[in-house]
Structures are given as structure tokens and as C-alpha cells.
Amino acid sequence: MSVLVFVEHTEGQFKKSAYEVVSYAKAIAKHLHQPLTALAIGNITTEELQRLGRYGASKILHVNHHKLASFINQGYASVIAHTVREEGVEFMVLSNSFSGKDLAPRLAAKLQAGLASNVVALPEIDGDQLTVKTTAFSGKAFAYITLHSPVKVLAVNANTIESKEDPTTTNIVALEPAAIDMADFKAMIKELIQTTDKVALPEAEIVVSGGRGLKGPENWNIIEDLAEALGAAVACSKPVSDAGWRPHSEHVGQTGITISPKLYFAVGISGAIQHLAGVSSSKVIVVINKDPEAPFFKVADYGIVGDAFELVPKLTAAVKAYKNK
Amino acid sequence: MRILVCISHVPDTTSKITFSEDKTTFNTTGLQYIINPYDEIALSKALALVEGGKGTVTVITVGEPVTEPTLRKALAIGADDAIRINAYPQDAWFVANQLTAYVQDKEIDLILTGRESIDYNSAQVASYLGELLHLPSVAIAKKVELQGNRATVEREIEGGKEVMDIPLPLVIGTAEGVAEARIPNMRGIMSARTKPLTVIEPIEVPQLGRITYYEAPVPRGSVKLIDASEPEKLVELLHQEARVI
Ligand SMILES: Cc1cc2nc3c(=O)[nH]c(=O)nc-3n(C[C@H](O)[C@H](O)[C@H](O)COP(=O)(O)OP(=O)(O)OC[C@H]3O[C@@H](n4cnc5c(N)ncnc54)[C@H](O)[C@@H]3O)c2cc1C
Ligand SMILES: Nc1ncnc2c1ncn2[C@@H]1O[C@H](COP(=O)(O)O)[C@@H](O)[C@H]1O
């Protein structure tokens, strides 16, 4: 009945989502009265590994091998699957990040495990079955998935639960990867380009998003200033990225990224169904639009009817004033 | 060069999603179906890669007879032939196993899928295929280029991208940026009717999980409007009432 969580890091620093999945897996482990084991792969300091203990992992398996220095889905999936077998894991938790999407199905196939992706709540465990809530239809519905395979894999969305400190004594174990299979390393990374050092959109707790109402890319500074004041990530509607005002990686909606931040600011976005699909699971939605009839107001929690060019800088000033208090 | 493009038949993006009384199935009556938008990107890319007689593009779907108009549309856009595996696509694991059974004994250089289907959004099929076929895979690619028998693929990562160099054959899930979706022209539509569409029967796949029921999102309460002259009021509400800042 043991629980294993795989944690991701960027250049040796655990991601925000890593602590979230540890807290998620810890909740399952507690429910089952089991200890929690975490697995990290790559070049990570002992000090950083120790942090996982603060969130409740009592055993930390660390695999550091030159072939596994950067993420290669096949190589990583082999190591994780091997660990699952060695540790007799029943519940495998990882984050539903870009890399998680590369990994989870591979792992599930290797282990003949049932897989639930887009997980947004803790599971109900009933004997050897597990049922968990996932998003479907791009946020227009939830689907409850029941897994009944001996091993179960859960890929958990960012912001599903808040990471929570729950310190335990930890034991860090350096693991040698079992036989490295060269067939797993056909893909090579030529270059890694970090386009932002700020919080990444899929993981962000607060997102400020701009639409066609902003008229052009030269006006994005008002969006960026508000985002900066709030410590938020920046997003946009589809026509904005289609027009090349902003990169496609910022486009949210049914055909873009689906996000579920605590707070979503929609500025100059009308609220088309395809846009709403990607953002409707945000906890709180604020809409700023000059048209009181804009459909977005119907699904918002707070709204201001007004001109973004006047309003957003004032709002930014108000946020700064609040933060300074 | 032979390219296989996996096509998912999904409800149109404007669809309202509703469920049966007992919440175990979603209502399909009255829904318009389309080629999954990401699969359209995959298909357009495939067609661009074989342009000038450099190869063929086969489209494949796991679906019941109702999915045939979607395959015909893919043929009209420019695919050379279509395969339908005659089964209801229960989940990504089922679909990937069916596709694997078809691909296994074929010489295919590149398999393209969409990054996710807009109905179940599981983003699982591409990586399942990679594993089941023992091929490299990229679940979410923003750019794909070929040089001989190698591919340069830009993989999306949080806050950036990774440029990868991967030998063919491989599986790629395409996202926006890979290609512009193509629209069928009159000649395409005419010729689609006579292009081959082969139906094959499914294999047995052990079930590992299933959707037990659906739930609609809880509707939000009505919006609280704040006067444009008092933006500081909004900040206060977000802090004290909503507790999100
Ligand atoms: C297959 C398909 C998939 C799609 N997928 C997506 C998707 O994933 N994401 C997405 O976003 N869209 C998607 N769309 C497009 C979607 O239907 C809408 O066209 C799009 O969301 C509209 O973008 P917008 O709100 O920025 O622009 P508009 O609809 O043009 O709205 C602009 C808004 O700005 C307001 N405004 C103008 N000036 C100001 C001002 N000075 N101050 C304040 N407000 C102002 C206007 O009142 C208006 O409400 C998709 C469409 C299709 C067909
Ligand atoms: N029934 C299906 N038949 C063929 N391909 C599919 C099917 N369902 C999904 N796919 C492919 O797999 C991709 C990802 O789907 P999913 O894993 O369901 O999000 C889609 O974009 C399609 O390319």
C-alpha cells in the first residue's frame, strides 16, 4: 500500500508544484497510515532534498547519474517504474506538468497501471479501488475516474492543494539507477531556453490576462505592471497570440493552456466560451471591461466596468499601496 | 516518408456539455462534431512535410461509424487515406493500444497526435504510443522540423522551451505554433469521396480504469461590481472577502 511521489526541479531547485504533489501524496499516505517516499532525479544538493522532509516525506530516494542530468522522458520513466516495483508502490503521484505529461502515460504503460491525469482533488480510496476528480471538456465539466489496477498513477494539476509543512525525520537514500538502457536515450537536448525567470503560467497562483481590448502589443506594459505588483504570471486570449502580440505559450483557453489559479484577472477579454473553458476553474475571477454587457461579467466574482487604459494603472497603484502597508 | 496522423472526433468548441440524469454519460444529441483542433494542426504539419511528393499521410481514428464524416474532412484537407478502428474510444489507454496494434507491423516514420483532445484533455495518447511502440516521444511540441531522418522538436516546458534532436521514427503531440490549420478547398472536398477509408476491427484491451460519473462545475454567484473610481475597493475585497491576496 505504499505511496511514492516523483518531484520535479529546475536546475536543482524544487518547483512549487513539487511541494504541492508532496503534500498531496502525504495526505494519501496519512489516510493509509503509511510513510511517504519521494523520488528525485538529477543533480540536487542534500540541503534541497532535505526540504522534502519538511513537507512530510520520510524517505527520499535520490538518483544522480550523468545520463539523467537533464529530463529525458524514456530514461526517467524507466528509473521511476523500477523504483515503483522495488518499493512495492501502489499509489504513484506526480505533477501534471509538461514533463509530467511526457512521463505519466509511459509509467502507467510500463506498470500496467491505471492513470488519472488532470487530477484536482484528493482521491477516495475504497479497498483496492480509487476514485478521483479530474477536469474534462476543457474545464466545462469534471469526470470522476475509478482505477482498479494494482498500481495507480495520479497526475495532479498545479494549485490543486496548497503545499503544507508537515515535518518528519527524513532518510535520504542515494540510489544507483538499475541498468541504464541506451535505447532510452535516443532523444537529445540541444538547448534549454528559459524565457522567463518569473513564475510560470501553469503554476501561477495569480494570473493577469489581456485580450483584444488592449489594442496592441505596445500596451502590454499595463498588464505586466499589474502582474508584477501582484507577483502574478501574464496570459492572453487566443486572438492576441494569433496576432503575434504575445507568444502562444501565454494563450489560455480551450485550445491553449488550462489554468486554475487562485485569482484570474481578465482585462479587455469578452469571455467567449472557448476562453472561459480554460480559466473557469480559477477560484476567483475579476473582469475589467469597458462594455457592461461583456459575457465575462456573467461568470465573474468581481468586476469593474471601465476603460482598461485608465483603470489598470490605478489598480496597480492600489495593489502597491496595499502591499506596502 | 510515411506519416500517420491520429484524429480525435470531438464536440465543437462552442458545445454546452450536459449529462444524463444519472450523470454517467454526457449528452451527445444536438452536438456538432469536429476534428480536434490540435489534430488539425498535426494534419497540416504532416501535409507540409510531405509536400512535393515526398511521402504520404494516413489519418486514423478509433471511433464508431459516426466518426466517418470527420475522417472524410481530414481527407478533404489533404490526407491520402484513412483508417477507422471500429470501436467506441473508451479512454486514452484503449485508444493507444488500438493504434499500436495497427502501427506495429507498418513502416511509419512519424506519428503525429494533437497535444490533447479537447473533450477528455488527457494528453496521454502520444506518450502511451511512444511507450507501447518503444519509440521516443514528445507530448507537447511547439515546433517540429525534419532534416533527413532526424527531427528538431521544441518541447514546451514551464516558463521556457527545450530544443531536442531526435531520430525518426518518433511520436509527437503537436500544439499551437507547429502549423496553421488548413481549410479544405473544392478539389479536396471532391476527391475526399473517392479516397480509401478502411475499417478495421478492434483488439481486446484490458480495462485499468473508467469514468464513473460526471459533474458540472458549480455556477458562480452573481458578479460584484465595483465603481471604476474606487479600484482600491477591489484590492480590499480581494484581500478581506475573497482572501486571495
Ligand atoms: C475552435 C476555436 C477555439 C478557440 N480557442 C480559444 C482559446 O483557447 N482561448 C481564447 O481566448 N479564445 C479562443 N477562441 C476564440 C474565442 O471564440 C474568442 O474569439 C476570443 O476569446 C476573443 O478574444 P478577446 O476576448 O480578447 O477579444 P474580443 O472578443 O474582441 O473582446 C475584446 C473585449 O475587450 C473589451 N474592450 C475593448 N476596449 C477596451 C478598453 N479600452 N478597456 C476595457 N475593455 C475593453 C471589449 O468590450 C471586448 O469585450 C477559439 C475559437 C474557436 C473557433
Ligand atoms: N479516438 C481517437 N482516435 C485516434 N486518435 C485519438 C483518439 N483520441 C485521441 N487521439 C489522439 O491523441 C491526442 C491526445 O488525446 P488525449 O490523450 O485524449 O488528450 C489527440 O489529439 C489525437 O491526436
TrEMBL record, chain A:
Give the residue range of the signal peptide. Answer: none
Q: Domain Electron transfer flavoprotein alpha/beta-subunit N-terminal spans what residues?
A: 3-189
Q: Which SUPFAM superfamilies match?
A: Adenine nucleotide alpha hydrolases-like, DHS-like NAD/FAD-binding domain
Keywords of the record, alphabetical order, are:
Electron transport, Transport
What family is it from?
Belongs to the ETF alpha-subunit/FixB family.
Q: What's the protein name?
A: Electron transfer flavoprotein subunit alpha/FixB family protein
Biological source species: Olivibacter ginsenosidimutans
Automatic annotation (TrEMBL), chain B:
Per UniProt, the keywords (alphabetical) are: Electron transport, Transport
Q: Which SUPFAM superfamilies match?
A: Adenine nucleotide alpha hydrolases-like (SSF52402)
| Family matches, as InterPro entries | ETF_a/b_N, ETF_b, ETF_beta_N, Rossmann-like_a/b/a_fold
* Keyword Transport in record: yes
- The answer to whether the entry has keyword Transmembrane helix is no
Electron transfer flavoprotein alpha/beta-subunit N-terminal domain location:
23-208
| Protein name from the UniProt record | Electron transfer flavoprotein subunit beta/FixA family protein
